[in-house]
Amino acid sequence: MSIDILMPALSPTMTEGTLAKWLVKEGDTLSAGDVIAEIETDKATMEVEAVDEGVVAKILVPEGSEGVAVNAVIAILAEEGEDAANLSTGAPAAYAAPAPEQTPEPAVTVAPVASEPLVTAPVADVEWTGPTKTISVREALRDAMAEEMRSNDQVFLMGEEVAEYNGAYKVSQGLLDEFGAKRVIDTPITEQGFTGIAVGAAFMGMRPIVEFMTFNFAMQAIDQILNSAAKTLYMSGGQIKSPVVFRGANGAASRVAAQHSQCYGAWYSHVPGLHVVSPYSAADAKGLLKSAIRSETPVVFLENELLYGDTGEVPDTDDWTVPIGKAKIVRQGSDVTITAFSIMVKKALAAADTLAEQGISAEVIDLRSLRPLDTETILASVRKTNRIVTCEEGWGQSGIGAEISARIMEQAFDYLDAPVTRVFGKDVPMPYAANLEVLALPQPEDIVEAAKAVCYR
Amino acid sequence: MATRAKKTSLAAADPKNFSPDQTLEYYREMMLIRRFEEKAGQLYGMGLIGGFCHLYIGQEAVVTGVQSAMIDGDSVITSYRDHGHMLACGMDAKGVMAELTGREGGLSKGKGGSMHMFSVEKGFFGGHGIVGAQVPLGAGIAFAHKYNETGKISATYLGDGAVNQGQVYETFNMAALWKLPALIVIENNQYGMGTAVGRASASTELFKRGQAYGIPGEQVDGMDVFQVYAAAQNAIDYIRSGKGPMILEMKTYRYRGHSMSDPAKYRSKEEVQKMRNEQDPIERLKHYILETGHAEEADLKAIDKEIKAIVTEAADFAQTSPEPQPSELYTDVYV
């Protein structure tokens, strides 16, 4: 019986990687635990160990191959006594096999039925007409920090694993090398303490960037974020500023269960004295983070682990900023408005594609900022479409959608042709099981269904 | 330096080492705090001060002695029992009192109140109402001093109640790890609100709380301003030399309740009276001044009169300064 050696997943969110190097060749005899290959993702390089003993019969994926899907067969191991040469080599087909879907997006098979031309083209970023470059969200965030650190020596980064490890999610890659340990500071695992230290440094006029490995852990520090950072300007009659950026991964990642999967957008957006942003695209990630670092106001900067590897066009300049408090229409439409932020923008855009195929023209707004919330852009869209679906990964009660709903009722009630409809995470702690997690999170088809409902379709 | 934690009585604390002028300055400073606090208590009783109001009466020697060992550019942060610290930092008594009454002329324009006042100019960073939260903030201020190589230090005051907060130890760890120029002053006034130290702390020797992090600590008679100064000077020399943080536990006592609304039934009247009779920092100093002839009774009376005028003026200002304009409601939320 031969044994398939599969492309391993090195993290819960990895779907593919590069097979960088084979450390064995066909005919080699292996023991369990032998290192056989090196795999690279955008985050790290890892070694692959043999899980069984035997002889390397076939290497199916040559070294240097990029985009190798998780669980693809990369080699075949013959058991002792088996003739490697006689093994079937039909396996390469598996090379292209898709990874088990971590967050399956439903297959929508409705044929295009557009009866009339729809405005569905993605809207280019009108704020920039110069040259761009394609980089990941992860690189965009890193570049934003590096540029601001170059231009202002009072900017520093602190957090768990940000320096020597280059960031738990590799966002701070290379910053220690460039700026040294004085400005890129590994902290102990002590969120409340180091958050307070950052706020105290900000009282003195410094511009700390605090990285929370994820925002789940920031709950340990929420007192310092609210009571010390957000309120001191007011309590001091305008004397003491707290220009800190609190940034890190927010929301569900993949299969990390209840304590590591929560959206804090609504939580922080409740608090006067804070700004809260949650970008989707690489360009916005960079531009908003630079604005946040330059801001005199404490900014909660909510990232998403699943977006770190997504790439996008980013203005090729070191002075690209995006204003905090301004939403962006990422797809124009006329029948229904869909609001979303962070990873939900991706799902909203997917839903809009499906809706277009069904003859419904959806306008998708990337909120980008949750506080200040760009009510004007939302209202203007609703006055045009007369229908709105709000999307968020977090829970519905007291959520961003609830807030948008209230503002629309207060300010655009007469424009509505259907009730404001919210799409949000199910009212349960995040389950671990793959199928339950998919059910708990809002999916594109939920948005499609909600949009069709408000269009009475 | 190896970890050391000791109960100290420094030779440098010998009153003979202090000039008559310095000694009288201590008297003046402590008397200002006491009279100010007494007046604040009166105004509270008249309904002119609202909310929480935590008086510093009895503890005056602590902040007076520590502040006199600090230099311009050093920074201070404390909890909510903060009026004395502001006065000792040189903040205007009128502005402090008007903040207590919630008036436009208050140091925070009436928006902070008793627990939240600040002065960038005087290096005073509050005035914080969450027990223990000022400790990492104070370390952050020390971090900024070290980062910018100012040569200055940060003094963080906390009470015996705050020493059991987790973030205090998170801070001790990082302050020691990064050798931050942070002076930690534990004002042990024996009660965290209504709970005696021994009922809240498994170990009541609070100066030893930094031992696990290699932070030296000393216990000091916080009712003796000379001892306080000497210990603070010693600690600040150590800290300023770049060796990292140091802890001073000041054994002190508050005569009033935890706040104005506290009847203080957790301790006997006799206990309070005994402290006042035997340990009062101002009476002790006054006795010493008269005994040594640094000043005559009449000289001290003149100082008292001067202080009374300052406090009266502050109280008048605090009552005549208008309430903040309604438009102030929405200012200072964002820069």
List the helices and strands and how they pair.
The complex is a heterodimer of chains A (457) and B (335).
Chain A: E1 3-6, E2 16-22, E3 29-30, E4 35-40, E5 45-49, E6 54-59, E7 65-69, E8 73-78, E9 132-136, H1 137-151, E10 155-159, H2 175-179, E11 184-186, H3 191-203, E12 207-214, H4 222-230, H5 232-235, E13 245-249, H6 265-269, E14 275-277, H7 282-294, E15 299-303, E16 311-315, E17 328-331, E18 336-340, H8 343-357, E19 362-366, E20 369-371, H9 375-385, E21 388-395, H10 400-412, E22 421-425, H11 434-440, H12 444-454
Parallel strand pairs in A: 10-11, 10-12, 12-13, 13-15, 14-15, 18-19, 18-21, 21-22
Antiparallel strand pairs in A: 1-8, 2-4, 2-7, 3-6, 4-5, 6-8, 9-16, 14-20, 17-19
Helix pairs in contact in A: 1-7, 3-4, 8-12, 9-10
Chain B: E1 5-7, H1 20-45, H2 60-68, E2 75-78, H3 83-88, H4 93-100, E3 124-127, H5 134-147, E4 154-159, H6 166-177, E5 182-188, E6 191-192, E7 195-196, H7 197-200, E8 217-221, H8 225-243, E9 246-251, H9 269-279, H10 281-292, H11 297-320
Parallel strand pairs in B: 1-8, 2-3, 2-4, 4-5, 5-9, 8-9
Antiparallel strand pairs in B: 6-7
Describe this structure in words.
Helix content of chain A is 26%, strand content 24%. Chain A has 457 residues and is α/β, with parallel strands linked by helices. Chain A has a seven-stranded mixed β-sheet with strand order 11-10-12-13-15-14-20, with helices on both faces. A five-stranded mixed β-sheet of chain A has the order 17-19-18-21-22, sandwiched between helices. In chain A, helix 8 (343-357) crosses helix 12 (444-454) and helix 9 packs across helix 10. The radius of gyration of chain A is 24 Å and the shape is globular. Chain B has 335 residues and is of the alpha/beta class. Chain B is 43% helix and 12% strand. At the A-B interface, helix 3, helix 4 and helix 5 of A face strand 3, helix 5 and helix 6 of B.
